[in-house]
Amino acid sequence: MEPAEHSGLIRLLSALFYAGSSFLITVVNKTVLTTFRFPSYMCLGIGQMFATLVVLYAAKMSKAVQFQDFDRSIFLKIFPLPLMYVGNHITGLASTKKLSLPMFTVLRKFTILMTMILEVYILRKSFPKHLVYSVVAIVFGAMVAASSDLAFDIEGYTFILLNDAFTAASNVYTKKKVGTEGLGKYGVLFYNALIIIIPTLLASAFTGDLHEAVRFEDWVKATFIFCFLMSCFMGFVLMYSIVLCSYYNSALTTTVVGAIKNIAVAYIGIFVGGDYLFSWTNFIGLSICMSGGLVYSYLTFNSKSPGSNTEEAPELKIHITQDLIKT
């Protein structure tokens, strides 16, 4: 179902729901992994997958939601989305642990460009040139900000760029899969978690990650347990909000909403958190990036539906491809 077929209020509410969920889980994950120094981001991801299975299974049993029962066709219907989800989970939690909150949000801007490219080649979408230029401005600002990162961490940068790629692919394929017969929004969430939780658990045990998590000393602290459980629950909420936003809007709009949320998070992180090393180059780059994000958001939410002018689509698609190659 195309975005134009949904009311503006539903589209807006789903976008705000995703923005709020994304903001809260970033703060909670940062608290668990950095403040409490929990050693296993992989186990935190497992906890979030487990919470998703418990909530959706209980909802299915109580007839609150409906989706297809498990059979062999599920694998073909949902592939390769589980691979995107597990990659997104692991690299996202790892980058949250390795990078300061402002730099994390700045480098996440590359997801917008990646999503746009994937929508052009996978979903055959097309975009006007001024929208492409605003994306270039966002990426340029992110590069300026990252160039002066005084706390440069090559491992953290690698994780965040991988996370960008997985997020973009996950958003695009989520949009593609929610329309699959028998799955829907809830089936996509449930079977993604079901398929990836066991391999992730095995990988955690094999790498020693699970052993470090079990030995963690703060399991006796009520505050840590509360934050850990909150992170697990928010993992489900975030995944649901992503599917909901992609369903009522588009993969690109979901990415845009994430960028809007990052505007608030990045500037708050400068004053709160204690791990941001200030430099003018970084701050100017951050401001360019955020300004581009605001322009991009304005153009996106005030533009016509992608399907409202189908005759111009081929021409716009040629323009965007050429512009991306030049940049």
From TrEMBL:
Sugar phosphate transporter domain span: 12-297
Mode of membrane association: Multi-pass membrane protein
Keyword annotations from UniProtKB, A to Z: Membrane, Transmembrane, Transmembrane helix
Disulfide bond as UniProt keyword: no
InterPro entries assigned to the protein according to its UniProt record, in alphabetical order: Sugar_P_trans_dom, TPT_transporter
Pfam families in alphabetical order: TPT
Any one GO CC term of the record: membrane
Presence of the UniProt keyword Membrane in the record: yes
Superkingdom to which the source organism belongs: Eukaryota
Membrane-traversing stretches: 12-32, 38-59, 74-94, 106-123, 130-148, 154-174, 186-207, 219-244, 251-272, 278-299
Subcellular location(s) per record: Membrane
PANTHER family, alphabetized: SOLUTE CARRIER FAMILY 35 (PTHR11132)
Protein name per the record: Sugar phosphate transporter domain-containing protein
